[in-house]
Specification:
210 residues, five-stranded parallel β-sheet
Length: 210
């Protein structure tokens, strides 16, 4: 059964993390992430944005503290550098997770076209991945992640390769995804993306201990 938005939450309690021989990236971090929110993880390079995404994905164990998640069965991650199958079309990439959910080919393609349009990619539906620009490939990975139906969507620097207008479209679309019941967390140094977030976790000054 699908999990209702009211049942979903991710909470962090006293999180701190460092790598061996380095000072803490962040510490004493508490938060609550809920559907409807677009949460920005902000701070300069090296402040721990991608590391915190990895902790939220349960790929990395925090040095201190804990994460508690409820109602989160599926986690989607969109990396900063897009990876796809060079000779498969854009629509193939987006329909695959829908077909895996049991949708018919026609249902999957109809849904995929709508999602691609949300990221201004409907023109590229029939193009092979290797033919896409860097920005188009990045948006395609976002579209594919959305079609996987995640409860928690983690996105690393989604607008780094995009012009201002396209970045604004991506920020707006991610906001709409959150309103549909997904918890959206974005690691970003883009001030425009930060402004588009409903909540911000600023990691700039959270690391100090050796």
């Amino acid at each position: 059964m699908p999990v209702s938005a009211a049942e979903k939450a991710v909470r962090g309690f006293g999180l701190a993390h460092r790598f061996t021989g380095t000072q803490y990236l962040f510490e004493n971090l508490d938060f609550e992430l809920l559907p409807g929110q677009v949460v920005g993880l902000c701070g300069p390079s090296g402040s721990g944005k991608s590391t915190l995404l990895s902790i939220l994905a349960t790929w990395v164990e925090p040095t201190e503290g804990r994460i508690e998640a409820s109602g989160v069965r599926r986690i989607g991650w969109v990396f900063q550098n897009p990876y796809g199958v060079p000779r498969r079309t854009a629509i193939d990439h987006v329909t695959l997770p829908l077909l895996a959910q049991g949708k018919s080919r026609s249902e999957a393609e109809e849904r995929a076209i709508r999602v691609l349009a949300g990221f201004r990619l409907e023109h590229a539906a029939g193009q092979q991945f290797r033919e896409l620009s860097g920005g188009e490939a990045q948006r395609l990975m976002l579209a594919r992640a959305v079609c996987s139906g995640p409860d928690l969507l983690l996105v690393d620097e989604p607008t780094a390769q995009l012009d201002t207008r396209t970045a604004a479209t991506v920020n707006e679309t991610l906001g709409a995804i959150a309103q549909d019941g997904t918890i959206v967390v974005i690691a970003t140094h883009d001030p425009h993306t930060r402004e588009a977030c409903t909540h911000v976790i600023d990691l700039a000054h959270l690391g100090s201990r050796p």
